[in-house]
Amino acid sequence: MPPRPFSIDLRRCSSYVCRSCLDSQRNLRPSNPPPWLVTQYSSAARRARPSSVAAGRRKSEAAPDPAGLDKNLAEELIRADDSPTPLDVKYFDQVAPGQLRRLRGKDEFDESIGGLDNEIETAINNLEKEMINTVRMLQRMEKEGGQDKADQLRKQFKKTLRLQYKGKTGPEAEEYGLLRISGFSGPRQRPVASLNSFLARDSVVKGGVLKPKDISECWKYYSAARKTLSTAWDRVPPEVWNFLWSILSSEDVENPNRMQHIYILAKDMQAAGVPLRDSQQLLAMEAMFIEGWQAEAIDAWKKAVVTLGSKPETFKAYWELGVRMCCLHGDVERAQRAADTLLRSAHKPDARILIPIIGALSADEATLEQAWESYRDMRDLLGESMQIEDYDRVIGLFLSANCVEYALQAFVDMMFSGAIDIRGRTRLPLSVSNHFFIGKWLKRLIGVGDLDGAYQVVVYLQSKGVTASPIQLNGLIGAWLRSGSAEHVEKAETLAWSMIRARLDYVRLRHRQASMQGSIQFYDPYQLPATEKQSEGKPEFQCLTRATAETFSLLAENYCSRRLHGRLQELFEVLKEAEIGPTSFLMNQLIRSYSQNGEAEEAVKIYRTMTQEQKIRPDGHTFLALFNSLSVNRLIQRDPDLSRQDIISGRQFFADMVRADWTFDTPEILAQLPRTILFTMLKAKDYTGTIIAARAMRELFAFHPPETLLIELASGAGSLHIKSKRNIERLVTGRNTIEILMKKHRLELIKRGHKGDVMTDEEKLEELYEVLEKLVLLKAKAQDVRPEELKPILEETAREMGVYDIVILKDAGQIARHSKLAKQPVGQM
C-alpha cells in the first residue's frame, strides 16, 4: 500500500499512526460495526451520484461497495434505516482519506449525497429559466422579422456568459474556474461577499502575474471573512483554497508577511479538512518554524521523512529545509546528517547546503575547527563553480562570529585560490599585509553593507601590525554616517575622534622634536607603546591612523545636518590644533551651521575671515550657503529693514562670486545656484539686481531659464511638486501669467516681421530671457518704463554687482576670464 499522506498538525497535537498499525486495523473486522462506518457508505453513495437515498441503496446492492463494506453489513445498515423503531443515527462524511466530518442531520446528509446545497440548486434553476426565456424571446424576434437584432443580442448573450464564467490563471499557471463561496446568509454574509467580489475580479491575476495590490487586498478580504468561514469551513471550495494559497504564497518583495499568512492559511485549511500538497506542506513547515513554533515544525519535518523525504520531486527541498531549520534550532548534528543524506544521494547535490552548518558551527568556539572543515569541504565539492558570493557569505558568517582570522583566510583563498595559509601566524606575509590588499577587502565589506565586519577587520589587522589608510577608514566612517542608525553614528564618531587623537599625538611629537637641540631620532606615533598612548576616558581600541581633512569634513557635515552647532565649533577648534588647513567644504559647513543657528552675521564674518585671512578659495556651494543665509530665505515674516540689508548683501555676494576663481563641480549646483539667486533677489524686491544677475549668469553660467522656473517665479511658489490647494492655485495663476507674456512676445515678433509660429532653438531661449525680464518688470510695476529710462539704473546696478564689463560692455576677455564653466582642453573645443 502507498504511504499515508502526511498531514501537518498546526495545533501542536500529534496524530501520527504508523503504517503497520493501520494495516492491522484494516484486517480486523468488528462484530458490531461502529457508527463512523456510515461515512464510508455516504462517500461511496456520493461518488455514485444517485438521485435519492433509495437509489443509493439499490446501487450498493447491485455492485460491490467500493468503500470496503461487505454485503451483509450493508443490508444490516439498510434494515436499521427502514425499521419503524426510532434510532439515533449519526451521519458522517469522509472529507479526506482518514478524516471524517460529523453532519448535522439527514438534510445535510442528502445535500452531501447530491453534491449541491439548496442555494446552488436554486441559482442553477433560476439560470435555466432565464436562459429559456431569453431563447424564446430571440425566437419571437426572428419570427417578427428582427433577424439582425436577434443575432446581435445572441452574440451579446454569449459574450456575457463567457465573461461571467471566465477562468483565472494563478502565478504558477494553474487554471481556475468560477471562484465563489456560497452557503452564508445574513450579516455574516457581508465579509464573505466582499471576498467573493475580490475573487470575481478579472484583474486579480492576469496572465499569472501578481501585482502588489492583489496580495495586500487578498489578505485584507480573507482575514475579514475568516471568522465567518470558520463556522462552516466545508463550504469553501477546494479551488478557492488553492487560489488563495497561490496568491498569499507569492515570493515577492511586496509580500513581507508571506510566512505569517501561509501559517494562518495552512491552519485554516487543516481545520477545513483540505489536504495540503507536498510543496504546500514544506512551505507550511517553514512558516510554522519562522512564526515561533520551531520544535513543532521540526517534529513535523521528522514525521514526513517517509513521504516527502523519499519522493524525487520533494527530496531536495525537504532535506534542505531540514538542514536550515535544525541549524537555526541548534541541532547541528541532525543538520549534518541531513546534509550528508542530501550530498550522498543520487540527486544532483549542491554543496552550498553546508553554508548554514558553517554558520551554526562557527557560533561556538568549541566547534570552530569543524566549521572551517565544513567550509573546506564545500570549497572542494564546488571546485571552480564556487562564486564570489559564496565566499562573501562564508566570510560574513565568520565575521559575525568574531572569527576574523578565519574570515581573512577565506578572503585570501578567494584572492589567491588557496595558495597562502595565514592562520596561526603572528605576522602576515607581505602579499597580505599591505594597504592595497586590505583596502580591497574593506571596500568589498563596506560595499555589501557589512560595516561592523569591516571595523572588526580594522581592529584585527592593527593588532597584526597593519594599519589601515585614512582613505579606507574615512570610507567606513562615511558609510556609518549615511546609514542613519544611532548606533552606527556613535561608532563613526568614536572612530573619527580616535583618528583625530592620533593626529594630535603626531603634531605634539613633531613639536617636541623641533624644540629639542641636536640630532634626535624621530619616532613615528604608530610605534609608540600602547601605555603611552592610552589614557583614561579613551576607548578600548585606539586607532593609529591619523585623521585627515576628509575626516573633519565628514564630522562637520554630520554635525551641521544634525544642527549640533556646539560640536561643530569644538571640531573647528581642534582643527586648528591638528594643524590641518581648513578647506572650502569645512568653511561651507560652518557657514550653514551658523545660519541655521540664527547667527547670519557671524556666518558672513567667518566667510570674510577664512577667504581673506586664511586664503581659502570659495566655490559654488559657498555662495549657495551665503544666499540662503539672507533673511528672506530664513524668516517666514519679512522684515523691511532686513530686506533692504539683504539687497546690499546679495549684490556683494554676487560680486564676490564673479571675482572668485571656481567652477561648477556637479550638475546639481549648476541648476540650484541660479535658481536660488533669482528667488532671493525677487523676494528682497531687488528687481534691477535680478535683471542684471540673469544677464550675467547667461554669460558666465550659460544659464537658460526653463519654463518651470518662470512659472515658479511668477507664482512665488517654491516647488511644482507641492500639491496643496493654495500652492496649486498659485501655480495656475503663475502659468497664466507666463502664457500671457509669451503671447505678447510673439505678437511683438510678428510686428517686426517674424512668422511667430515656427521658432529656432536659439529664438526659444531668447524668448525665455525676454519673458523673464518682462516678468520682473511686471512685479516691479514698471512694465511701461521705456528702455532709455531703465538703462542708467541697470548700469549703476551692474557696477555695484561687479559685472559692468560683462553685462554692459560685453567684454569677451572678461567673460572668458570669469566664466564658471569647466574649462575644456583645446582639442575638445
Automatic annotation (TrEMBL):
InterPro entries: PPR_P_subfamily (IPR050872), PPR_rpt (IPR002885), TPR-like_helical_dom_sf (IPR011990). PPR repeats lie at residues 583-618. Residues 42-55 have a biased composition (Low complexity). Residues 41-70 are annotated as: Disordered. It comes from the Eukaryota. Belongs to the PPR family. P subfamily. NCBIfam families: PPR (TIGR00756). This is Pentatricopeptide repeat protein. It comes from Canariomyces notabilis.
